[in-house]
Design brief:
Order of helices and strands: HEEEEEHEEEE
Distance between the termini: 56 Å
CATH superfamily: TM1070-like
CATH class: Mainly Beta
Helix content: 10-25%
Number of domains: 1
CATH topology: Hypothetical Protein Tm1070, Chain: A
């Protein structure tokens, strides 16, 4: 007696393919990862950003700083060795790059973008200062687009 094949074989094969390829599809979906934060360098406030390379190979990223009106103030690209970090003092960076800064309104959006989105593992932290005193430190979760 001959057995008739049913749809079960196709279902089992489909589940096996998804089980094998699923992690790779999810890995590729990281293609739009970036880190964003609101900074404040007005009056006596200050913001520092620490970007760390959590991988065992060289990586690069771009830091974009926008003012409170959405105008791009500066773009800076940095490279990091494995397990290395870099500290960006936004007040000093803005002061070096721009003339006639209104420090009463020196706040806005900062975006950190890995240059190779799917494979670069960055850790981005923010340090908030009041005068010379460190008042807060927090880590930024990655966003996706």
């Amino acid at each position: 007696m001959r057995r008739r094949s049913s749809g079960w074989y196709a279902l089992v094969l489909a589940v096996a393919v998804v089980g094998v390829l699923g992690p790779w599809v999810s890995y590729g979906s990281e293609a739009g990862r970036f880190y964003s934060l609101i900074y404040d360098c007005s009056r006596t406030r200050g913001t520092g950003i620490v970007v760390a390379n959590a991988s065992n190979r060289d990586t690069s990223y771009t830091l974009e700083v926008y003012d409170s009106l959405g105008n791009l103030l500066l773009t800076e690209t940095q490279s990091l060795a494995p397990f290395d970090s870099y500290w960006h003092g936004l007040g000093a960076t803005i002061d070096e790059e721009l003339e006639d800064v209104d420090w009463d309104l020196a706040w806005g959006l900062c975006i950190v973008r890995p240059l190779v989105y799917a494979t670069d593992l960055l850790i981005v932290s923010v340090e908030v200062f009041e005068g010379e005193n460190l008042v807060s430190v927090f880590q930024i979760e990655a966003s996706h687009y």
